[in-house]
Amino acid sequence: MPDPQVTIACGPVAAGLFERMPGRTRTIIVEKRRYDLHWLSLWRACIGTRWDLAVDLRGSAVTLLLRTRGRTIMRGGRRAGHRIRHLGGALGLTPAPVPVVWTSAADDAKAASLLPSGRTLIALGPTANWAGKVWPAERFAELFAAIRQALPDALPVVLAGPGPAEHAMAQGLLDRLDEAVDLRGRLSLAEVAACLKRCQLYVGNDSGLMHLSAATGIPTLGLFGPSKASEYAPVGRQAAFVAAPGPEGDAPIAGLAVEDAVVAARALLGLA
């Protein structure tokens, strides 16, 4: 399908990922409602169109009730294996395509105005959607100090999502860094992606920012503790992860040693 017209249905948090998507004609924002009534609203928004292909990645019944020449429904629920493999498999794509993210010229210009050229930019993502996945701020600071020893021109760029919780979660790291560029909650997802594309490395907890970084293609290091890297490790042209010792998905993130992260970061930077 070389020139598709694509309609995206997604939650409000993810909507920004598709703002610059080629071929996107519409985004339907799905707000969760009691008694699963959001699915009825989605069906009403889609039933008036005769679709060529309907792809359902949530395992719902909505696409079964649409007029479409073809449909793909990915089974819901947790199962072994990486999520990207499940997504590709639903469409019969093996191996699964590497994720991508799109930016505009305006996004790239905004990033250039915020981040200096001529410096080694190290993006740090010290937040996550729950505290158990958050590597201690002092470990991030020690990691950056080790990088700066090898690359004296290194400049930290701290990223976090919007809202006071994310803002506060990143403050501990900012308090430990000098000269850091603070980009917490200031940018759209496309602008964050544009900023990441200017960086030479991203290091962060298992989070949406980690996956966004990997999708830009820059060297990306994910830090894992009580979540499964076998399912959620970053996927990209230059992506890697390190995990705390212990049972996968049940290891305290505090057990992840700075030295292990430094070794992996240096390898991604070509310093190993």
UniProtKB/TrEMBL annotation:
Domain of life of the source: Bacteria
Example GO molecular function: ADP-heptose-lipopolysaccharide heptosyltransferase activity
Keyword Transferase: yes
Pfam families with a match to the protein in the record: Glyco_transf_9 (PF01075)
GO cellular component: cytosol
Keywords recorded for this protein, A-Z: Glycosyltransferase, Transferase
GO biological process, any: lipopolysaccharide core region biosynthetic process
Protein name, per record: Glycosyltransferase family 9 protein
Organism annotation: Lichenicola cladoniae
Upper classification of the organism: Bacteria, Pseudomonadati, Pseudomonadota, Alphaproteobacteria, Acetobacterales
